[in-house]
Amino acid sequence: MKDDQHRFLLLLGQLPLRLTAEQAGWVLNCQPHDIPALIHSRMLKPLGNPSANGTKYFATADLLEIAKDRSWLVRMTTTINTHWQKQNAKKDRQINGVRPSNSSLIEAR
């Protein structure tokens, strides 16, 4: 957040009404790169209908409300952990020379 924005919001005494993925991560205490996994799992819904590669915004009120729900926080933590376990397993398979199943069709010829 820019210094001018920060000072202005301090004068208002409130958070912005919509947050970027990075800011949403701050509220939920997770990394900005975890937010796409939460969107994909439908645990977070961005405002409007942004394109796949467009900037996603989230309602501050919604984030603050769901952050009070312990069971949602447990599901969020599990979702993030599962996502990165799958990503790391995929990376390990590629490093160890095991090809993804769809590439074996090309090799069979």
Your description of this structure?
The protein has 6 helices and 2 strands, in the order H-E-H-H-E-H-H-H. The protein is mostly helical and 109 residues long. It has a single domain (3-107), classed as Multidrug-efflux Transporter Regulator, Chain: A, Domain 2. It has a two-stranded antiparallel sheet. The longest helix is centred in the last third of the chain and has 26 residues, at 70-95. It is elongated and about 55 Å long.
Uncertain segments are: none
Total helical segments = 6
Number of domains: 1
Q: How many extended strands?
A: 2
Biggest sheet architecture = 2 strands, antiparallel
How would you summarize what this structure contains?
With 109 residues, this protein is mainly alpha-helical. The chain has 6 helices and 2 strands; from the N terminus they run αβααβααα.
Chart the SSEs and their pairings.
Elements: H1 3-12, E1 18-20, H2 21-28, H3 35-40, E2 57-59, H4 60-66, H5 70-95, H6 104-107
Antiparallel strand pairs: 1-2
List descriptors.
single chain, 109 residues, mainly alpha, Multidrug-efflux Transporter Regulator, Chain: A, Domain 2, 56% helix
